[in-house]
Design goal:
With 128 residues, the protein is of the alpha+beta class. The chain is globular. It is built from 3 helices and 7 strands; from the N terminus they run αββββαββαβ.
């Protein structure tokens, strides 16, 4: 695992959108915009159980993330790594925290929606 520097962590802490690339069964990329969070050197992504990105990382944990800093548009953090953990535990509280970060209010959680928290360890990082 590669350690993030303070500037990279700050870009991930701010309400900057990321694009998460996962691998389809045939090896082609699947990219989705995601909200992100960081816990030390681990990047957190929250998704709905059963979505394409969750199915892809269950089969192949390799991912890539691209995060453009909205405050300093010239700064971008790119990460290649792997999903090292997937859990439903705490995922509902986490999506509310992300929604407050990005929208300033709790997430409008549809009844019965199952959330999954992905933990991504970086293997390669570029950026400020």
């Amino acid at each position: 695992m590669v350690r993030l520097n303070d500037e990279q962590r700050e870009v991930l802490r701010r309400p900057n959108y990321a694009h998460l690339a996962t691998l389809m069964l045939d090896g082609s990329p699947h990219v989705s915009p995601v909200w992100i969070d960081v816990d030390g050197d681990v990047v957190l992504v929250n998704t709905v159980a059963g979505r394409m990105k969750e199915r892809n990382v269950r089969r192949d944990p390799r991912v890539a993330l691209s995060v453009r800093d909205q405050e300093r548009i010239e700064d971008e953090v790119t990460i290649r790594g792997r999903v090292v953990g997937m859990t439903r535990e705490g995922a509902i509280a986490h999506i509310h925290a992300l929604s407050n970060k990005y929208r300033g209010k709790d997430f409008n959680l549809p009844p019965g929606q199952d959330r999954v928290l992905l933990r991504i360890e970086p293997d390669h990082v570029t950026g400020p």
